[in-house]
């Protein structure tokens, strides 16, 4: 079974680029366009990894990361923070909030897919039954 990736992004072009490249690699994709839907999608879909945009209409990706890390059921979910904010202080804040990786926009879709593979490899399978 392919890994399930949750994309939390509110910009349609970004969603489509991510979806296309991840599905082409064999991943299954679920999309949330705001924090509320994202926090509902995590327990509902039990994703293997989340790609979370920092700037969302209702709440920041930073807050989503903190919420996921505070919940014992979801605290081990691998998260890649996606942001146009590329300063060192922003990257540090993203990682300190619970993201496992931080990617600055604009980014290479090929690099993003490679980072997804690498993070999934480092964190191991979600379930032993596979």
**Which superfamily, in CATH terms, is the homologous superfamily?**
Response regulator
CATH class: Alpha Beta
Average pLDDT score: 94
Helix and strand element order: EHEHEHEHEH
Q: What is the helix tally?
A: 5
Strand elements, count:
5
What is the topology, as strand order, of the major beta sheet?
2-1-3-4-5
Distance between the termini: 7 Å
**CATH level 3 topology:** Rossmann fold
Radius of gyration, in Å, reads: 13 Å
Number of domains: 1
Structural class: alpha/beta
Helical residue percent band: 40-55%
Under the CATH scheme, the architecture is 3-Layer(aba) Sandwich
Large-scale geometry:
globular
The poorly predicted ranges are none
Largest sheet: 5 strands, parallel
> How much of the sequence is in beta strands?
15-25%
Topology summary:
Blueprint (H helix, E strand, L loop, with lengths): L3 E5 L3 H13 L3 E5 L2 H11 L3 E5 L7 H10 L8 E5 L4 H9 L4 E4 L4 H15 L7
Parallel strand pairs: 1-2, 1-3, 3-4, 4-5
Helix pairs in contact: 1-5, 2-3
Describe this structure in words.
- The structure is a single chain.
- By secondary structure, the chain is α/β, with parallel strands linked by helices.
- It has one domain: Rossmann fold (3-Layer(aba) Sandwich).
- The protein is built from five helices and five strands; from the N terminus they run E-H-E-H-E-H-E-H-E-H.
- The protein has helices at residues 12-24, 35-45, 61-70, 88-96, 109-123, and strands spanning 4-8, 28-32, 49-53, 79-83, 101-104.
- Strands 2-1-3-4-5 form a five-stranded parallel sheet, with helices on both faces.
- Helix 4 (88-96) links the parallel strand 4 (79-83) and strand 5 (101-104).
- The longest helix is centred in the C-terminal third of the chain and has 15 residues, at 109-123.
- The model has no long low-confidence stretch (mean pLDDT 94).
């Amino acid at each position: 079974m392919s890994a399930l990736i949750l994309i939390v992004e509110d910009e349609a072009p970004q969603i489509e680029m991510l979806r296309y490249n991840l599905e082409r690699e064999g991943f299954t994709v679920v999309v949330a366009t705001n924090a509320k839907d994202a926090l509902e999608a995590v327990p509902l879909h039990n994703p293997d990894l989340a790609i979370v945009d920092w700037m969302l209409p209702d709440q920041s990706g930073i807050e989503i990361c903190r919420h996921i890390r505070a919940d014992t059921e979801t605290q081990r979910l691998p998260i890649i923070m996606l942001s146009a904010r590329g300063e060192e202080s922003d990257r540090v804040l993203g990682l300190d909030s619970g993201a496992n990786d931080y990617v600055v926009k604009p980014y290479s879709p090929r690099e993003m897919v490679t980072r997804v593979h690498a993070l999934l490899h480092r964190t191991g399978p979600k379930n032993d039954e596979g």
